[in-house]
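[agent] plan:
  1. take the single chain provided in the ticket
  2. run structure prediction with default settings
  3. attach structure tokens to the ticket
  4. add a short note for the reviewer (M.T.)
[agent] executing step 1
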Amino acid sequence: MIKVAIGQDSHRFDFEDLEKKLVLGGIFFEGAPLAGNSDADVVLHALANAISGITGVNILGEIADKMCLIEGITDSSAYVKEAMKYFTGSINHVSFSIECLKPKISPKISEMKKSIANLLSISENNIGITATTGEGLTDFGKGLGIQCFCILTASV
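[agent] step 2 finished; step 3 output follows
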């Protein structure tokens, strides 16, 4: 059986936190970090939500909150790994659409694909990443944060 799921996440920038780093798809970017208890990696959060759409087990929320707030795990790749514990089958393709004014995503797409491919144990050829400013029509396109949508196709 083929299943398709969508995941979404968005965070505002935290312009005051000088210690935290901006992370997208497990890759560090220059610029203000995103606000959140974890590293606020909207790409991996959207991916975790898409996996949850396939498995029916919601990771972001109670499970991730426990991991982050009680166990101190702030690396979003751990949330994806947790989501994959409930996944049976194979991932056919993952597609991400990122909306932001900054940072520029395209120079690091290949690094992001490699990071995500390693996390999911799939080929980089099965990952698509696009980015847009949305012509500045939303807060994301105006530079106030980042939004990511993820579509996941799986054979289960």
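[agent] step 4 note for reviewer: The chain has a mean pLDDT of 97.
[agent] ticket updated
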